[in-house]
Amino acid sequence: MATKKIMYINRATPHGGITAKESLDVVLISAAFDQDVALAFIDDGVYQLLKGQQPEKSGSRNVAKSFAALGDYDVRKVYVEQESLAERGLSEADLVDLRHENPEDDYRDTASIRLISREKLARLFSRQDVLFNF
Amino acid sequence: MLEVNGRVYPTDEEGYLENISDWSEAIAEAMAAADDIKLSEAHWDILRFLREYYHEYEIAPAVRVLTKAVGRRLGKDKGNSKYLYNLFPDGPGKQACRYAGLPKPTGCV
């Protein structure tokens, strides 16, 4: 199977519905099939990456917990739009610390989250083979 | 459905427990016995690892991910397909997750 550049764009709040969970399941499936997977979090989607969520109290799945396994699935590119964070009064320090072993750097433990401007992210969209909106 | 020691536990159509909290070692042993497998300490290492993994990430890992994660946490001699398929011939992802009381791994068909 040919490898495609697939980007999943996440705009939904983590617990307002099942969108975040559905997105994560599709991401894990495509990553298990050796595709070049990247995630982007924009608008209210940035809330999915907030540290210290306790959704278990409402019976909802803690997606931020599962994101920590993305490195095991070789998903190493997690883009967060700077403007979306700033508009919500958030900064990188409010987000979970996702790590992966970087094969291009002697498998060194490397941060997966990269802040990116709206303008640069738009350019990144145009370089993907497939975009999925969640 | 699965009956162990006189109690009935709900499962899906492929035999995965509906409620992860129903799990016990006796359930794992009963599932393995139905497949003619006697669980050894080597099996338990993997089952315990899977339960911890699920507890931490809420993900039942696909086989490729399981292999890699086992290698990193339990050692390279265990983190390879040959070793894991010897223990779980129906597929370490699917079979071990089922014995461990986890749902079917995401990404397994």
Describe this entry's structure for a reader:
The complex is a heterodimer of chains A (134) and B (109). The model of chain A has no long low-confidence stretch (mean pLDDT 90). Chain A has helices spanning 19-32, 63-67, 82-87, 118-126; strands at 5-10, 36-41, 77-81, 99-102, 108-111, 113-116, 130-133. Chain A contains four helices and seven strands, in the order βαβαβαβββαβ. Chain A is 25% helix and 25% strand. Chain A has one domain: Hypothetical Protein Ychn, Chain: A (3-Layer(aba) Sandwich), CATH 3.40.1260.10. Chain A has 134 residues and is of the alpha/beta class. The relative contact order of chain A is 0.23. Chain A is globular. Chain B has a single domain, classed as DsrC protein, C-terminal domain (Arc Repressor Mutant, subunit A, Orthogonal Bundle), CATH 1.10.10.370. Chain B is built from five helices and two strands; from the N terminus they run E-E-H-H-H-H-H. In chain B, a hairpin with a 2-residue loop joins strand 1 and strand 2. Chain B starts with a strand and ends in a 10-residue tail after the last helix. Chains A and B meet through helix 1 of A and helix 2 and helix 3 of B.
**Mind telling me the CATH class of chain B?**
Mainly Alpha
- Beta-strand fraction estimate of chain B: 5-15%
CATH homologous superfamily (4th level) name of chain A = DsrEFH-like
CATH class of chain A, please? Alpha Beta
Query: H/E order of the elements of chain B?
Result: EEHHHHH
Distance between the termini of chain B: 21 Å
| Mean pLDDT over all positions of chain B | 91
The outline of chain A comes out as: globular
Topology:
The complex is a heterodimer of chains A (134) and B (109).
Chain A: E1 5-10, H1 19-32, E2 36-41, H2 63-67, E3 77-81, H3 82-87, E4 99-102, E5 108-111, E6 113-116, H4 118-126, E7 130-133
Parallel strand pairs in A: 1-2, 1-7, 2-3, 3-6
Antiparallel strand pairs in A: 4-5
Chain B: E1 2-4, E2 7-9, H1 25-34, H2 41-57, H3 63-74, H4 81-87, H5 92-99
Antiparallel strand pairs in B: 1-2
